[in-house]
């Protein structure tokens, strides 16, 4: 066999092997992306009975007389 023909045959085998390998491998899948979420729903606001601060009702401290922004303000206002 001529040297040039031998190298062309080796190159053809390598290229065909690479193409076969590339076709057989599993394509990478991107991780699923979460759908975009809109802004959070508005929460009802309450006013601290001691200092007048407005805060979400879920964050307020409940006292006998109403909502407060902290335990300290509840203690100061209710004794």
TrEMBL record:
Give the taxonomic lineage as stored in the record.
Bacteria, Pseudomonadati, Pseudomonadota, Betaproteobacteria, Burkholderiales
Superkingdom of the source species: Bacteria
Q: What's this protein's name? A: MYND finger
Q: Which organism is the protein's source?
A: Tepidimonas sediminis
Q: Does the keyword Transmembrane apply?
A: yes
What keywords is this UniProt entry annotated with? Answer: Membrane, Transmembrane, Transmembrane helix
Record field: transmembrane = 6-21
């Amino acid at each position: 066999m001529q040297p040039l023909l031998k190298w062309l045959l080796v190159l053809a085998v390598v290229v065909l092997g690479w193409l076969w390998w590339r076709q057989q491998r599993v394509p990478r899948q991107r991780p699923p992306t979460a759908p975009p979420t809109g802004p959070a729903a508005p929460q009802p606001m309450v006013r601290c009975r001691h200092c007048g601060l407005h805060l979400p009702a879920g964050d307020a401290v409940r006292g006998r007389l109403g909502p407060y922004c902290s335990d300290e303000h509840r203690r100061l206002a209710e004794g």
